[in-house]
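Backbone-to-sequence.
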């Protein structure tokens, strides 16, 4: 035997050969090392089995279990030689995967304890065989090279996608973790299985098309492969096909949906392959088309055996539930899970999830069934917590579409499924697996006195918000900034979409009123003068009562009585304050004219004239200012004396100004124009074209006296028909 810690695919063994016992060296994996043993295939127990059939099944299953136990007891090298080179073993395992009872099959309920024990023993032996076949390293001494292991299982068809799907259906319940490790190791060591999985997804979509065709339902939208020919014969529908065809179709649908769900539940990495083929949209369209038709056929058709009808209804309901769960698994692992884990491009995953929900809106039946099992409002609430900047209008539209779907199918939403209002935007929940810190940023204490931003930055944030929301107070905006970690964009978004926390909503909704604290404010006063409150129009007083009312005279009398007595001198009694007699009031007789003079402010100035008049330039030193001043004064006197200036003088002044302007700029005569141009057929110059255009544009200044403009104006007023 080869030395230890060498891969099995590199080991060599020496064995005797022939009657003479000559030794020969062979690779550890060689067909001659296979044991000659015939593995019997699996035969299921019939539904209505007789005692001899039960005895035959027990004996047959016992042989099969003993063979598998013998196989599992082989050493590592012998086991792989038997697995790779024994075709009867592969037929035995394949027969069990094909014919073993599933969860809804009647054979899954054993008729006797002996059958149940034997079925359980055989089930475990088959599972352990596949588990050992999917393990490339059993110990430090017994292992295969990963690359060679992947090649062996792929080239010898030890595993393929249909086998993996059957393994998930048969052994997924209770062994999901082992199956996940097993399938993950197969796909890791042999990536070629991913390409096979892509082809399998295409086959599954063809299964949907086949069911639609068998039910007489034409593919619509994305499932339409080719237009229906007018000469084609009409297919039988679920109501008109034979009973056996309907049973086969329901079993086919149930088995397909159960298998896909089990595979995606155990191996979530395959969800991306399904999504790359648009599987989710096809599934929703298929559900919307097929399920109502099948339910109607099972419910309304006449069955001789009521038990068969109940079994078909159970399988149709099971298929519906599995299809909805498949859709949820695809959304969970391709959209929701990356958001919870704080992956990069979280906004992209959220947008993809909303896009899928939007595509579900036309599929009313599918949408209502999905919302019944997995409320869409919960997923949207999760998105709003993870991404506070999500479009509130879009989410509201989706929730209204879900309500419309429930109304369209004529069903009432179960209690406890009422859509909640949009929750306040908060950071990602701390329970998310590693995603909270990445999505919401580092946590900062908000309740303390320490502000994480500087004063200048805080003023900048406040001014940025108040530019858009000038009616909000500074204190309220400060509280919002503290609540949302000083993120001005988040504050503006939550205020505009009414998604503030309850505390902030209360402070925002408490408005002041101009009538607060007045005499009729019952919210701040315990007693109100009800005599001044009446309902409707107040009854007016009669003319006699109004004339007899002398109250205003009494009020005027009290006012004039204060002016009757004038006291010049008041004797102040000892011990009384002068304030009681008004002696501290302002004395109106005091002369305060010179109180504002600055005494001693100009003591350093020796010339007393500086205090009386400002300094002026002597007339000898002036340079013509007096003459100009005299001229201005005389002109002002002349202008004030004239009522209307002389028109001749005004014309002379205008002519003088015009001459001065022409003298400065020079006289420029109008440029010559040439609108005649050359004779016809010889072409015209650019100057001729420009002159003609100028003449056309300005011809209204000439002899027509603005007739064209006024005619257009008259026509525009509607005075004549145009």
């Amino acid at each position: 035997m080869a030395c230890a810690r060498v891969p099995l695919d590199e080991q060599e063994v020496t064995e005797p050969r022939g009657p003479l016992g000559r030794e020969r060296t062979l690779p550890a994996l060689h067909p001659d090392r296979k044991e000659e043993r015939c593995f019997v295939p699996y035969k299921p127990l019939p539904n209505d089995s007789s005692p001899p059939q039960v005895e035959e099944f027990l004996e047959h299953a016992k042989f099969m279990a003993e063979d598998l136990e013998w196989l599992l007891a082989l050493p590592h090298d012998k086991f792989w030689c038997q697995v790779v080179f024994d075709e009867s073993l592969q037929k035995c395992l394949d027969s069990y995967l094909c014919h073993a009872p599933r969860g809804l099959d009647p054979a899954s309920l054993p008729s006797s304890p002996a059958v149940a024990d034997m079925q359980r023993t055989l089930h475990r032996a088959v599972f352990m065989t596949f588990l050992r076949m999917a393990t490339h390293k059993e110990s430090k001494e017994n292992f295969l090279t990963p690359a060679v292991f992947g090649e062996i299982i792929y080239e010898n068809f030890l595993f393929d996608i249909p086998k993996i799907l059957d393994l998930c259906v048969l052994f997924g319940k209770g062994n999901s973790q082992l199956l996940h490790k097993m399938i993950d190791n197969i796909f890791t060591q042999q990536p070629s299985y991913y390409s096979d999985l892509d082809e399998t997804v295409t086959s599954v979509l063809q299964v949907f098309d086949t069911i639609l065709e068998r039910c007489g339902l034409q593919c619509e939208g994305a499932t339409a492969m080719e237009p229906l020919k007018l000469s084609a014969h009409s297919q039988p529908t679920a109501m008109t096909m034979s009973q056996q065809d309907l049973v086969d179709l329901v079993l086919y649908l149930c088995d397909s949906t159960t298998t896909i769900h089990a595979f995606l539940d155990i191996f979530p990495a395959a969800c991306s392959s399904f999504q790359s083929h648009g599987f989710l949209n096809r599934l929703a369209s298929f559900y919307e088309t097929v399920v109502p038709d099948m339910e109607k056929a099972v419910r309304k058709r006449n069955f001789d055996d009521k038990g068969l009808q109940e079994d078909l209804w159970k399988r149709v309901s099971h298929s519906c539930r599995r299809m909805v769960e498949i859709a949820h698994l695809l959304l969970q692992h391709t959209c929701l899970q990356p958001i919870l884990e704080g992956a990069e491009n979280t906004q992209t995953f959220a947008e993809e999830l909303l896009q899928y929900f939007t595509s579900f809106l036309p599929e009313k039946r599918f949408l209502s069934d999905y919302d019944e099992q997995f409320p869409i409002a919960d997923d949207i609430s999760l998105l709003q917590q993870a991404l506070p900047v999500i479009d509130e209008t879009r989410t509201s539209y989706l929730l209204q579409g879900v309500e419309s779907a429930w109304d369209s199918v004529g069903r009432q939403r179960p209690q406890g499924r009422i859509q909640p209002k949009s929750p306040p935007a908060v950071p990602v929940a701390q329970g998310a697996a590693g995603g909270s810190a990445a999505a919401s940023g580092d946590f900062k204490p908000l309740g303390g006195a320490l502000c994480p931003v500087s004063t200048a930055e805080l003023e900048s944030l406040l001014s940025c918000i108040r530019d858009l929301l000038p009616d909000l107070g500074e204190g309220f905006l400060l509280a919002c900034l503290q609540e949302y970690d000083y993120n001005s964009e988040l504050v503006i978004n939550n205020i505009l979409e009414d998604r503030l926390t309850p505390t902030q909503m209360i402070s925002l909704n408490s408005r002041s009123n101009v009538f607060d604290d007045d005499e009729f404010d019952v919210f701040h006063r315990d007693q109100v003068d009800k005599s001044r409150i009446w309902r409707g129009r107040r009854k007016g007083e009669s003319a006699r009562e109004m004339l007899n009312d002398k109250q205003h005279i009494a009020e005027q009398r009290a006012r004039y009585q204060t002016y009757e007595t004038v006291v010049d001198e008041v004797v102040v009694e000892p011990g009384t304050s002068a304030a009681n007699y008004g002696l501290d009031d302002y004395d109106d007789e005091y002369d305060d004219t010179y109180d504002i003079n600055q005494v001693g402010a100009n003591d350093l100035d020796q010339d007393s004239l500086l205090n009386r008049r400002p300094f002026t330039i002597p007339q000898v030193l002036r340079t013509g200012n007096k003459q100009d001043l005299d001229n201005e004064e005389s002109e002002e006197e002349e202008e004030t004396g004239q009522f209307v200036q002389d028109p001749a003088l005004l014309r002379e002044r205008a002519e003088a100004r015009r001459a001065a302007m022409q003298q400065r700029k020079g006289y420029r005569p109008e440029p010559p124009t040439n609108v005649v141009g050359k004779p016809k057929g010889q072409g015209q110059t650019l100057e001729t074209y420009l002159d003609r255009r100028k003449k056309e544009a300005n011809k209204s200044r000439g002899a027509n006296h603005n007739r064209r403009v006024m005619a257009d104006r008259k026509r525009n007023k509607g005075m004549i028909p145009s």
